[in-house]
Every structure is written in C-alpha cells, then in structure tokens.
Write a structure and sequence with these properties.
Elements lengths: L3 E4 L5 H10 L13 H8 L5 E7 L2 E10 L4 E9 L8 H15 L4 E6 L7 H6 L3 E3 L14 E6 L2
Parallel strand pairs: 4-5
Antiparallel strand pairs: 1-2, 2-3, 3-4, 5-7, 6-7
Length: about 150
C-alpha cells in the first residue's frame, strides 16, 4: 500500500470527517458529535492544521494539530479507517505532526485520549508518549476528563 501524507485542504473536510466517523469511536464520546463545520474551525484556525493520508483508494487516515502555548503543539483527531489499521498509517501521521512541531520550535506534543477510547493508550505509549497529570484545556465539559499524554521532543 502506497500512502501519501499531505496537508488537509478545505476540499478534504468531508473525507476527513468520514474517516473520523468510520474510526469506530464510542458514541458517548464528544468525537461522535464533531461536524464538518467544527473541523473547518479547528483545522484552519491560526497556526493549526492537519494532514490526510491518501492511497489510491482515497483518504484512509487523518490528524489535526493546534498550538497550545509557546512550547506545546496538541495533536488531535487522529483516525484511520479500520481496513488500514496495523499498517503504520497512524504512526506516520503522528510522526509527521511531531516533525512539524520540531520545525516550528515546539518542545513537546500533547494529546488527550477519551475515557471511551483507552484501548489506544499502548499505541501512543509505544511512540514515546507518557501520561501527564495536567488538565486538558479543550476537554468537552459533558465528557469525563481525558487521559493526557505528552512527548518531549529532542
């Protein structure tokens, strides 16, 4: 499978949303309430952005990011379609966000894992992310507090 990573464009928003919804998140998660308009506001805010992973079959993975202070880039909305799980697409997307963070001078990448998605913790821990006691500034007020993970960048 040949995967190309590229910056998300406004034209990608329906496909980005479709990949998020296909990821199989628990319906109790605020993730399941994200709309295309929410993605537009999040991914195209100042200094924010995102990437899509594309194959000959279309968009198979997505990720977003946004600055959270002068030394932290927050990774969010990482999703892959179930048919490509375990093939390195998620890892490639995370590593691309980390490379972007380094290039922009951020010292760390932070992410939050929903209490309804704790099965992904070993994936992130395998990429060097460690649990943090800090609160997640963007937590949905109607959801249980997420698990915050941080990776310091060399």
């Amino acid at each position: 499978m040949h995967v190309v990573l590229r910056a998300v464009t406004p034209a990608d928003l329906p496909a980005f949303h479709a990949v998020m919804m296909a990821a199989g998140m628990d319906p109790r998660s605020s993730w399941s309430r994200v709309t295309v308009a929410d993605l537009q506001a999040s991914l195209f805010a100042p200094d924010a952005g995102g990437l899509v992973a594309q194959t000959e079959a279309g968009v198979v993975g997505v990720v977003g990011y946004r600055p959270d202070g002068p030394r932290t880039l927050t990774l969010n909305k990482l999703a892959t379609v179930p048919t490509v799980r375990g093939q390195g697409v998620g890892r490639q997307l995370v590593e691309a966000v980390e490379a972007h963070a380094r290039a922009q001078g951020y010292g760390r990448v932070l992410l939050a894992v929903s209490q309804y998605n704790l099965d992904v913790l070993p994936f992130y821990e395998g990429l060097g992310y460690r649990r943090s006691a800090e609160a997640y500034a963007h937590a949905h007020p109607a959801s249980p507090p997420p698990v915050v993970l941080v990776k310091e960048l060399p």
